[in-house]
Automatic annotation (TrEMBL):
Classification lineage: Bacteria, Pseudomonadati, Pseudomonadota, Gammaproteobacteria, Oceanospirillales
Protein name: DUF4258 domain-containing protein
Alphabetized InterPro entries for the sequence: DUF4258
A Pfam family matched in the record: DUF4258
């Protein structure tokens, strides 16, 4: 998988892949989230990317990611809410 938005290959950790399976989020949805979701940065390397998907009733879907030599997806959450 490759992110055009970040210009980097995407690596999904084992933990993130397990959370995706539990939450019925497939790779196409993950890529859509990474490419088109709203970004909030923690610092220059760590961020959250969140997006609402039509047909899902679990609020925002969010990926916690780290930028290194690739975009690393650490975990994927649902029922996500931005902190004020």
């Amino acid at each position: 998988m490759f992110s055009q938005r970040f210009g980097l290959p995407v690596h999904v950790t084992r933990h993130a892949a397990e959370r995706m399976a539990e939450r019925y989020i497939n790779q196409d949805q993950l890529l859509d989230l990474l490419e088109h979701g709203t970004i909030r940065s923690k610092d220059e390397f760590r961020m959250w990317i969140a997006k609402t998907f039509p047909g899902r009733n679990d609020n925002l879907v969010c990926a916690a990611v780290i930028i290194e030599d690739r975009l690393i997806v650490k975990t994927v959450m649902h029922h996500f809410q931005w902190e004020p």
